[in-house]
Each structure stands twice: as C-alpha cells, then as structure tokens.
Specification:
The protein has 474 residues and is an alpha/beta fold. The chain contains 15 helices and 25 strands. The chain has three domains: 73 residues, MurE/MurF, N-terminal domain (Udp-n-acetylmuramoylalanyl-d-glutamate--2,6- Diaminopimelate Ligase, Chain: A, domain 1, 3-Layer(aba) Sandwich); 221 residues, UDP-N-acetylmuramoyl-L-alanine:D-glutamate ligase (3-Layer(aba) Sandwich); 154 residues, Protein-Tyrosine Phosphatase, Chain A. Strands 10-9-8-11-7-12-13-14-15-16-17 form an eleven-stranded mixed sheet, sandwiched between helices.
C-alpha cells in the first residue's frame, strides 16, 4: 500500500511517495510519513531519529527546520483519522461495524456475532486479536489504536469481509482511538467498576462506555437487567432491549444449566425458540441474547442465526476440560467482581460437590477491586489457591495480601505463588463430582512477569495435571 502525499494532504511536496503513516518514531521504516501527534512525550524531539530511520516527510505543529519535507498544521491529532482514511481508501465505509461494550462479556458477544454471521464475511477485533476465516493476528490492545485499527479494517475489506464485530473498550474512547469511527449497530453487556485507575470514577467510566451509542447510526441494544441500564439508555439511538422481562424486545426464559451445556428459550416478536448450546451460565444467555438482537435488528433471519448457535466456541470462556476424569474442570477469563459473581451464580445451579478455585489478580493494575475479588472467590469456594496472574513488577505476595484483606479469618485458602503448582494442587485436591475453576486468564498464552511475556496456557496446564493424575491412578 502506498500513496502520493498529494492524495493525503495539501502541501508543497505533492509527488513524495508515502509507504505508511507512523506516529511512533521507533516503528518508522524507509518511505514513511511521521506524524507528531500529542502525547506524554513531545514527538517533535524524535524527528531526527525518524529521519535517520527513513521518514521521507514530517507533519508537526511547531515551526522547525528539518532535512526532509515538513508540513506544519495546527493540530496533527485532528487530521490523523483523515490521513489514515485516505491512505487506506476509507475502509470503515466498506464495512458494517458492530460495536460491543461492557465490563464483562465483550469478547464472548463479539465472538458469538462473528460465528453467527460466519467468519467468511465477518471479522473480529478484540481481546483475542483480530481474525476472520483467512487469518488470525495479535493486537496490543482490546481496541487497537488508530495506527493499527485502520490497517486492520483495510485488511478485512481486502479479504472480502462485509461486517466487523469489534470490542469497544472504555479506554479506547478515553484515549480517543475511536473518535471518527461510526458504528452501524452496537450493544452493551453490563457495567461494573473496572479500569477506575484510568477513569477515576464510575460516572466517568459509564460516560466513556456510553460514547459507543453516540457514535451508532442505527439500533442500540441494551441489557434491561443491568443496574446502569437507564444511564446507558440516555445516549442510545433507536434502543432495543434484551433481558428477563416479557416487555424486552428479546426475552430470555426457562434457563436450565448443566456442567457442559445450557438450554433456554428466546422470545422475539411473539415467536419462541429453544436454544441448546455449549455456552454455560445465565451470563452467556445474556451475551447470546445481545448478539442475536443486534443481528436481528440488522435484518438477519432467525433461522440463519439459530442454525449457527451450535457452532459457537469462545476460547477461554467457560472452557470445559474433560479428559474422562471423575470431576469437572472449567477454565474461564473471569477476573472482575461482576464477572466472578455471575460465574458463581451459574455454579450454584449445578449438581456438584465442592468448588475448588485457582485465582490471582494483575499487578500494576486497579488494586481497589482485589479485596472484593478475593472475598467473592473465598465465599463461593470450598478451597482456594491464590497464585500469580500477570504480576508484572509487583510482588505476588503483596497482590495476594490485597486479595485476602477481607478474609483474614477464613481457613479455606492457601497461597501457591507458582501458577503451574497452584493448578496442579487444585486438580490433585479434587474428589469425584467436584468442580475445579481456573480463573483470570482464559485462553491467553502467557503472563506478564516483569517486562517479559512468559508462555503459559491455563487450559494446557490443566490438561497436563489431569493426565498426570489419571496416569498415577492406574
């Protein structure tokens, strides 16, 4: 992909060939345009480095002289979206963008949407990277920055995608990553206290979440069962609701839960449909309802969507590990108070014996929720093994101390700092018909330890521990 500078911006240098647009000087390659956007550092200071790496033109806001063509503008940030749009031939206009926000359930709901439509015409962007039938790649953020987002949308458009299901995080709105993106249809799952290290207050957090609806052109799909429904509804265009009330546009009823499947009914426009799915828990019934109502509002037929329900598989979300052992094991991403509460509500509906949990909390992230997470897990488990979970540079013992603040007099938990050993201890502790829950990481393939991303997959660790136990018992 390359463009003449004259195709991107008016200047005195129309014939310069631009091979890419970068805002990070470290990523500059020969032929790139370097844009000095605002940020924590003054990017103008890195212009010599960018030129050394091969930048052929600079856009900035200061009066400076450079050895390559320089274009001064009032505010580089204000033109960045237009630059990327022109460079990638306005890929956002060639796709119907479906946005999903919420504290928990974004990944599940967007993955469900992609599955129901079909990954041959629908791409996905979110926690698990970005993907369609033809490729799967990683991203740095749940909702990528502009530099990455427009390129991804271009890749999808070139690959024949017609739709994109995108996780729209509150931090993406806070950091203006989605300022000029319009969504065809959008929905939200639920709101709970999260990322308050960024947003400071719940009100600010909700305000960022609700920006999705302000940037939606058609229907906004809302969870009427959520505590913050009325606040989210204020900015919603053409609101439709899903939930457990007969007045909802999509009404969920008669939920039956089992350790490996769920059965319930959806009622839409007077028609009742039986849903038999591998998705576990009431919260996943809500996620599926959100996805279904989004697509129904877009004109998809119920028959088309229902036939694809059995194909839904969400890596790391309520993954059942079954190798023939006489106990149950589930790996799940739940790590917030709301997510864990909803998970344990599901667990209480099961005919099982004891609940054994493995959990930690991320280092150098919102510490205020740790004590509540620890108490929720301890209150709902017969045995807990607290361990590391993306500690980064923070002391794991300090993190676990925070998690145990409200449960110091409990006797149902112990610390095993090494996550491998903690998972093995939980598996070995299980008796027939017990349930082992391995929480917090889902399908992620590593942990942040210090500055390193160290390979580690909960599913594989659980499988290995179960196989070791089965072999030792023979």
């Amino acid at each position: 992909m390359e463009k003449l500078l004259s195709q991107l911006i008016e200047s005195d240098y129309p014939d310069i060939l631009i091979k890419d647009i970068k805002t990070n000087s470290r990523l500059i390659e020969p032929g790139d345009l370097f844009v000095c956007i605002n940020g924590k550092v003054d990017r103008h200071e890195y212009i010599p480095f960018a030129i050394e790496k091969g930048a052929v033109c600079i856009i900035g806001s200061k009066d400076i002289k450079t050895s390559v063509p320089y274009i001064r503008v009032e505010n580089p940030d204000a033109i960045l979206d237009e630059l990327y749009s022109k460079f990638y031939d306005y890929p956002q206009n060639k796709l119907k963008l479906i946005g999903v926000t919420g504290t928990d359930g974004k990944t599940s709901t967007t993955t469900i949407i992609q599955t129901l439509i079909g990954d041959d015409i629908c791409g996905y962007i979110g926690t698990n990277g970005y993907s369609c039938r033809f490729f799967k790649r990683d991203t740095d953020n749940t909702t990528p920055g502009k530099e990455t987002l427009y390129r991804i949308l271009y890749e999808f458009a070139c690959s024949g995608m017609k739709y994109v299901a995108m996780e729209a995080s509150s931090e993406a709105f806070f950091y203006n990553r989605l300022d000029h993106i319009r969504f065809h249809t959008s929905g939200y799952t639920n709101i709970d206290s999260e990322h308050l290290n960024t947003h400071k207050t719940l009100e600010n957090y909700i305000a960022c979440k609700s920006m999705l609806f302000a940037q939606t052109d058609n229907y906004s799909i809302l969870n009427s069962h959520d505590l913050h429904f009325n606040e989210m509804k204020k900015t919603a265009s053409k609101p439709l609701t899903y939930g457990f009330n007969e007045t909802d546009d999509l009404y969920i009823k008669n939920i039956e839960s089992y350790p490996n499947r769920s059965v319930y009914n959806f009622v839409f426009e007077g028609k009742e449909h039986i849903i038999n799915t591998k998705l576990l828990g009431k919260f996943n019934a809500e996620n599926l309802a959100c996805a279904m109502l989004i697509l129904l509002s877009m004109g998809f037929k119920e028959e088309w969507l229902l036939k694809n329900v059995e194909n839904i598989n969400i890596p790391g979300r309520m993954d059942v590990i079954d190798l023939g052992q006489n106990f149950h094991c589930i790996v799940d991403y739940a790590h917030t108070p709301n997510g864990l509460t909803r998970l344990f509500e599901f667990v209480k509906t099961l005919d099982i014996n004891r609940v054994i949990s493995v959990s930690g909390q991320a280092g150098e992230r919102d510490a205020s929720k740790r004590k509540y997470v620890g108490k929720i897990i301890a209150d709902n488990s017969d045995k807990v093994f607290f361990t590391y979970e993306d500690p980064r540079h923070e002391d794991v013992n300090h993190i676990i101390d925070d998690m145990c603040e409200l449960i110091k007099d409990y006797d149902n938990y112990e610390r095993i700092l090494d996550r491998h050993d903690a998972i093995k201890a939980a598996i070995d502790y299980a008796k027939p018909n017990d349930l082992v829950l391995i929480l917090g990481k889902g399908s992620e393939d590593g942990n942040y330890i210090g500055d390193e991303w160290v390979y580690f997959v909960d599913n594989k660790e659980a499988e290995k521990a179960i196989l070791d136990r089965l072999c030792n018992n023979h």
